[in-house]
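Final paragraph of the annual report: two paired records, presented back to back.
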Amino acid sequence: MPAHTETDTPALQLSPIVAGVWRMAEWNFDVDQRRDWIHQALALGIDSFDHADIYGDYRVEALFGEALAAEPSLRDRIRIVSKCGIKLTSAQRPEHRIKSYDSSREHVLASVENSLRALNTDRLDLLLIHRPDLLMDADALARTFEDLKAAGKVLHVGVSNHTPAQLALLNSRHRLATHQIELSPLHLPPLDDGTLEQCQALAMRPMIWSPLGGGRLFDDADAHARQVREVLAAVGERHGGASVATMAYAWLLRHPSRPWPITGSGRVQGLRDAVQALTIQLSAQDWYEIWQTAAGREVA
């Protein structure tokens, strides 16, 4: 089956910073606080929100959906990303005997319906296959994507955490909009394993999860994280005293693949730190100074 050009489908558009909600169940926000948080993100220029069906033991989508139900007009002001394909063992999904991955038509369609219902919406702006399924049938999954898009339930599709070869196979059957990957000064492999080169070759802007190393960047007990934090702070001083978090985001944004970083904080200041990075342009030497400390060596 040839790759789909889908010239009639507008390119994926997300806000320059995407708000991640995977920890929302831990924030202990009531409905009004969740709604206010969405408003605060919008005020900062963040209109895209990253979900997955499994977040919060399958509860976060419904928490977010309650906020949308409380103010339905919010839905048309935001973009919703969600992911499916991981089956966790959970009381919420008693039929899952073991943790596994599933990209079958049955599972993807059921997952989308569950997400739409939980989120109180009729569409996902972007659906991602969360992890690579070793049993993926690329042709069957492409047909599933086509049907979901034809029904208006999903506007764009992509993958997360796939190898370049896995992405290339699926992209040859159905044009993918993005690849969501882990990247930070504490996780460097995508810089030289072909992942970001592939994104650029395909004109596919990547999404970046865990841009602050899942919070490890601020762990005083982690010697390597302390070293990276110190160099980020030093470079930040040369850029108007920008915070360590802001400089970590700025380092990611400097990459020519034009990534969309995903925050992970319920704190509005955490969102501000990320947005502030949009005003900072690192020089190549600044960027490599951070990379050198992160990699623990000079360039070869």
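The closing record of the year follows.
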Amino acid sequence: MVGRLIVVVLFEGVDLLDVTGPPEVFSLLQREMDEPTGYEVVLAAETLDPVTTSAGVRVLPDVTFDGLTGRRIDTIVVPGAVETDERRQVRAVVEPVVVEAVSMMAAGARRVASVCVGAHVLAAAGLLDGKRATTHWSTAHQLAAEHPAVRVDADPIYIRDDNVWTGAGLTACLDLTLALVADDFGEELALRVARQLVMFLKRPSGQSQFSVSLEPVSTTRRIDELRHYIAGNIARPLTVTELAEQAHVSERQLTRIFRTELGMTPAAYIEAARVEVARQRLETSDETLQRIAATCGFNTVDTLARAFRRRLDTTPAEYRNRFRIV
């Protein structure tokens, strides 16, 4: 049996599910194994005083950061915390004492993983410099702005770059932890744990963490009207020329507006919208891939497959197998 000390970092205001989700996954693995997993999960904080989470639930640390000095740490799991202003804008909260502790512990750890906005802590500790990383979509712009050395990708539900793992939203902590289990014990055991969690299947890392409808709301009525127009004509061969005429602007101006408002070109947005509709049909219908491709504006299955590979790093058939709602 290989001993694997898992340290989950605690601090005031931490998101509760970020803290409880990963240990639950590590614990459920034991049900699927005859031999001990070797996992020892401890909650670590600056002091042994109770920590109040964002949900108001108090959690007791097992050990202090200083108490881990000299211990061999296998994995560090860093949760996150946010604050919301009067406009309901979300910002990640980073405590210097936590950054310092994570930085020191990571020096001797086999791997480091962040859950949700915990990526901001890793970035502040310099652990994401030069690496590709993800975080919750609502703070991705903050992460990129404050840490330009980090290659932020707000789309995947989790990313592995060498020995550093970053996860997206709250529930993605389960997907991230299942990936850690698969890294240690293989895909088959990770899938068994996923079934224990009543998850459809363990999601691939490339699975998008948000849909088109969750993207930032535009600030102009013109773009909102175009988005509704695209949604209502998704099966048609939409062109930049047609959209420019619809918005009464030049094609160059339309492209500039889309990049400013939505962060992508009109063509990229149209493809994203079509993929979103195709995802919904794959999850909820028995339609053939040919039918879905036609009704979503892709025309051919090959075009549909290429779009899925670009945006979700999977195929339509694989997506349906994983996420079909029975």
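Residues 42 and 157 are 25 Å apart (CA to CA). This concludes the annual technical report; the extension proposal builds directly on these records.
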